Amino acid sequence: MSKPRIKAVIPAAGLGTRFLPATKAMPKEMLPVVDKPAIQYVVEEAVAAGIDDILVITGRNKNAISDHFDAVPELEARLVEKGDHGRLARVVASSDLADIHYLRQGEPKGLGHAVLRARTHVGDNSFAVLLGDDLIHETDPLLTTMIQEHERTGAAVIALMEVDPDQIHLYGTAAVEGPVDGDMVRVTGLVEKPAKEQAPSNLAVIGRYVLPAAVFDVLERTPPGKGGEIQLTDALQELAAEADGPGVRGVIFRGRRYDTGDRVEYIKAIVQLAVDRDDLGPELRGWLKEFADRL
């Protein structure tokens, strides 16, 4: 028998308070990054890793997300009439990316709770979790590497990135041993948003996970932690501590990541991604040089 195909879960129930008032009526996941909403980059990343079944965990006022990935026949017909085949292709592509499902989180009880809500859809199979605040550049095959490591070892696999120790309090943080294979390490402990003095390393957990279905049983019994929420970090800590289990592995990511959950980093992401594009880069690079000279 062939192994079940891995599914992806994208938690998207947050309120986006750092971007108010822009997110008063618009989901933060729908904020545009150049000419696509942030969540489309995440879906495209999952698809590029071979995933075609995606569950989006939503909350109130998130209907724009499902609307975006739906077909819009009247818009498509209008573009056909105008002969605008370039925009038509981009509109159709966003509707045909994957088989996308939606589930309301209900109460905002934290990332661990959002992941637990996916249990019925995922079943007894392993799955990937992709956070919409973290965009990984399309040329960096992080998720593919994580899936391969999980399939090889059976371990939960998390993405880690070195950050300035002064910023470590903003992240879940890993204690590690290794490397066991290149940029792969064994995770021995996890702490959610520790003070700088208490952090076990400067390796921050970023928003990519490949998890075994066993994590659901752990989340069921995980009490609220930091911030009064059910933390996925706490459940992973338990998996890491199991003496007889496959444990937790970390991939130290050294590629390009854009944190669109921070306003300054969001602006940087737009500029960097636009500069890389053939249709926008040449004009934008020249303007940026002129603008920098005026500062």
Notes on the structure:
This protein is α/β, with parallel strands linked by helices and 295 residues long. The chain contains 11 helices and 13 strands. The N and C termini lie far apart (63 Å). Helix 3 packs antiparallel against helix 4. Strand 9 and strand 10 form a beta hairpin. The strands form 3 sheets. A 9-stranded mixed sheet has the order 5-4-1-6-11-8-12-10-9. Strands 2-3 form a two-stranded antiparallel sheet. A two-stranded antiparallel ribbon has the order 7-13. The chain folds into 2 domains: 255 residues, Spore Coat Polysaccharide Biosynthesis Protein SpsA, Chain A, CATH 3.90.550; 34 residues, no CATH class.
Write the layout of secondary structure elements.
Layout: E1 7-12, E2 32-33, E3 36-37, H1 38-48, E4 53-58, H2 63-69, H3 73-82, H4 85-95, E5 99-104, H5 111-116, H6 119-122, E6 127-130, E7 134-136, H7 142-153, E8 156-162, E9 172-181, E10 184-192, E11 203-211, H8 214-220, H9 232-241, E12 248-252, E13 257-259, H10 263-276, H11 281-294
Parallel strand pairs: 1-4, 1-6, 4-5, 8-12
Antiparallel strand pairs: 2-3, 6-11, 7-13, 8-11, 9-10, 10-12
